[in-house]
Design a protein that fits this description.
The chain is mostly helical. It has a single domain, classed as MFS general substrate transporter like domains (Growth Hormone, Chain: A). It contains 18 helices and no strands. Helix 6 packs across helix 15. The two termini are about 25 Å apart.
Length: about 450
Amino acid sequence: MLDQLDSIPWNKFHRKVSMALGLGWGMDAFEVTLIGSILGVLGPLWHLSGFILSAILGAWFAGIMLGALGFGLLADRFGRRAVFLASLVIYGGATFATAFAPGIAILLLLRFVAGVGVGAEYSAVNAAIAELIPSAKRGFAASFVMNFWSVGTLFAAFLSWLLFSLLPPDFAWRVVFACGGLVALSTLWLRRTLPESPRWLLAQGREVEAQAIVAAIQRGTTCLPNVGMRSGKFVRVKSHLVADLRALVTRHKAALALGCVLDFAEAGGYYGLFAFLPLAVLPNLHLATTALPLFYMAGSLGALLGGIIVSLLLDRLGRKPVVSFCYGATALACLGFAAAAPTGATPVIIGFVVVNMLATASWVGAYPTFSELFPTNLRASGIGISVAVGRIGALMSPFLIAYAGQTGVAAALAVLAGFWAIGFLAMVVWLFAGVEARGVSLERLSKFPA
């Protein structure tokens, strides 16, 4: 049955599942970009201290960590579909409610809840896309979904620019959050017809349901087949929290280590870049407030280009050489950006576009690379742990960059380069000692020592 699933030609089912999962992923990026723009408005409006502004970001990252860990475990226990539907309800509802936040306490709470929803997306979406797509197209489809992140950042930057140009700031930020929440919730309409992962169903001993879904995929439909029947031919993989975690850190420790290091490096480097820009670079450019979203839009276009290039290369050249190159090139680009930062607006914009392009190419390639290495019954948990460890890097990098930045822009960018270099070194080790997953079925991959 799984050979049959892997041999199905690319059809409208695969296009729809990629779009439905990708649009939700894009709304997560919308949130990340949005909060950076909104904090610059809320600070003076609500007279918020630097500590409170940092607490808002901290609540967001804490929510992602909890959501990735908790919902990763839940996705392995109750299925991918339940979690990738719940994640949009949690994230979309909290984002929409933020538009009506009366004060900072409620705003903090809602940012935490929205972060939980985004963390759930990381675990469920990456697991689902790996398990629903044929092995020959798995790298392309997974990176295609990841590319919606850049689409979401573009949408957020454009909407912020438009609304802040047309409306008073104290009203515009609420409208932006309301629009983002409504768009996220509307994505549920697309996702409602997506099926459960047949691989996960087989791991639960639900062979008849899995076969019905595989047949539906073969027909190119996304209508859920009649489910509820059970088959005794497959033995259900019992899920126990402690046993599952023990299996991850013993039998799959190499895959887990790779996922944690790659995510730590990209989260530290990526979020550090966006924390560094408003602190040390943008103030020297003297850009108007309404022009800042246009600056980020330029970076998002570069990011989209980088992600598209990687999505075309993963299934052609392989994960190991492509992701290794991207992490190494991003580290070097950060050092080059250090030379451009003091020279004026045009070099800074070009440098930002190049760094963002390579950084996005790195993490867009990284998620498919480590997601497919875990066995089906532990995949979402492995992804969730990797993402949670990655958020530690995201929390650390702004403080490290601020400290290094006291001695100059070059030192701060060297810290950013260091994060990406960590990921590069991990990929160099994997290049020689790890398995290449290009075109290999998930079942075969799970048998490799990891």
